[in-house]
Amino acid sequence: MRRFLFVLLLVCPFLSFNAQNQPWQGKFEPIDNLISPPNSYRTASGAPGKAYWQQRADYKIKVTLDEKNNMILGEEMITYHNNSPEDLSYLWLQLEQNVNKKGNEDFGSINNSMKDGMTSRQMQFLTRAMDFPAGYSIKYVKDGAGNNLKTLVNNTMMKVKLNNSLNSGESATLSIAWSYPITDRSLFLLSREGYEYFPEDDNTVYLIAHWFPRMAVYNDTEGWQNQQFQKLGEFALEFGNYDVEISVPEDHIVASTGTLLNSESVLTKTQLNRLKKAEKSFSKPVMVITKEEAIDNEKQKSKKLKTWKFRADNVRDFAFASSRKFLWDAQAVELPTNTVMAMSFYPKEGLPVWKEESTNAIKQALEVYSEATFDYPYPVCISVNTSNIGMEFPMISFNGGRPVNGKISDAAKQSMVGTIIHEVGHNWFPMIVSSDERKWMWMDEGLNTFLHQRTVAERYPDYSSVTPKTIVPFMTGDKSILRPIMTTSDNELFNQFGMNFYIKPTVGLQMLRNSIIGKELFDEAFKEYANRWKYKHPNPADLFRTLEDATAVDLDWFYRGWFFTTDNVDMELNNVKWFKVFEENTNIEDKNNSSAVKIAANEKGATEAQKDFSNGPEVINMMDTPDNAYGQFLSRIDEKEIRKELSSKNIYEVTIKNVGGLVMPVTIEWIFTDGTKEIDKLPAQIWRRNEHEVKKTFIKEKEVSKVNLDPNFEFADTNMSNNSFPKVQTKSDFERFKEDKSNP
Ligand SMILES: [Zn+2]
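Above are the sequence and the zinc ion SMILES. Below is the predicted complex in structure-token form.
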């Protein structure tokens, strides 16, 4: 350690704190008490432990789509593998269709208030004035020996009581038959599935999802994850292999999770040939079904059924779409270890933009996400057009965005492409890196939006994408209703889950990557997390720990602030003081009169806070170090050399205040009088000793004319008007209001 002894000819500035701004609140303390402790299942490094286990459920399903009655009728055999160390006397299955039963649908109280004027559709959402049938009819639940099993249904969850307990390490089969009325998507605010009717040609597009009774997750963290489905918190599902036979009207085209096993019996020779061609087409999609053929198909209205057979390995869910309206295009996407068929299915109403953009967007997402995590492992990746929303399932997603009269605005097109990238991206989070969506929406939405925005920024540079600026209005919102990211899915408000669970984690990861950890280390750590937890069930602690484990960067302060509080970043550049070292004369008597600089500074009152640099530097007297300051050292530093080194330099002492509460790294931009610029970066740890105010001294060759904090807007600083010295004159709200009034 080197120590210079400066004697400042200044009164030390008075440090003041008010009660809320205690200089130390433990912002850098470990978050061990906020996250679950490590154990033999989940290690302290954030990886699955040696004793990690996971249940597995394989499904064989036969399902019929009854177009006349808009019904789904199915039979399934589930083989459930109990890999847990516990014996189970009952199983929980998810019956998500029951959320659509009258009385259950607004269980999450999404939007329950009356307004002065309401549309009939809003009133339908609110009151279900037009009632309709919904929810499961369970015909039977049997065990492997064909015995009926007792069940109890609690809203969206079904408890199946086993005749014999399913012991650790054993497997059991369940056979279930069920049916449910498919619901009209236009009658719900949040309809992830259901049917969309097209009156013009009297046809329907069916989006069939959470359609079969599915095993709930049983794991080391929750036991049974049997929280009710309340529409916002999505799904927690086990991996397994699926054999699914889907019977639909014979003129329907089915887009589905999995590999189509009987293409020869469900597709025409022409369609098969085109598909073969598409397998070799890497640069652009091949039309498997053209617009003309789809329009011709719309008129068929066959009453006969045809069965499509699909197989999907190692997926956590299964969904499909069916219609006679579909156009179909396909192309191959080559990844280092896998070649994927990217395919889009859309009604003619999606033209021309769907033909132009959808499959290409799948390709862009497949490439960027594979590079950032692991190669997309499945054979197909499908985007199906819907009227609204975007919804993800393994290998298939339903994506909104349609032109009006063949025209689409630039914003709507960007939103459509963004939706496709996002929903394709969900194949990684949570379809493979299978976090618990019912509990932590941010874990899949946040990580996925981060890579989705990276895909947009890299592959669609003309499109707008999320940056730290995007989150500022949210971060400055009403503190009484803001919740931290670490809020469970259904406890968030409907009007802020997008910002809190999608955008805020995205910006957090952007800050870690671009400004806190650095791209190379961050990317490696993010990849590590994805690979550690693929086909497994990670918790927030596993992500937090892995990002530290793989980077050697202590991030507890960041997690604590960004994920566990609603504080924001607001750094204030409170003061910048300019000093010059007075080159001390050997003639000690002459000291007080020999420096013109010093006299000039003194005359203007060096102790007063300066508004800018016009008063010139304040003068520091640097004296020789007295012998007693060396203690027992016999050596002496070179006083002359130090004096020479500092003599012509400008010394700047910067005072920064943390107004928003979040500790963050500090980026300082120096603009010199000759117009050149320089950047200094300080790590967040500068706030360790005083979380409210820090001072830091810099030495610059050139004279500074202006200093700015966070000039590149890396840290979502919510108030940029206090980031500069000399202070930027900002207009008051009242002045702006007056100006607005006079400028109609
Ligand atoms: Zn999403």
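Residues 150 and 161 are 5 Å apart (CA to CA).
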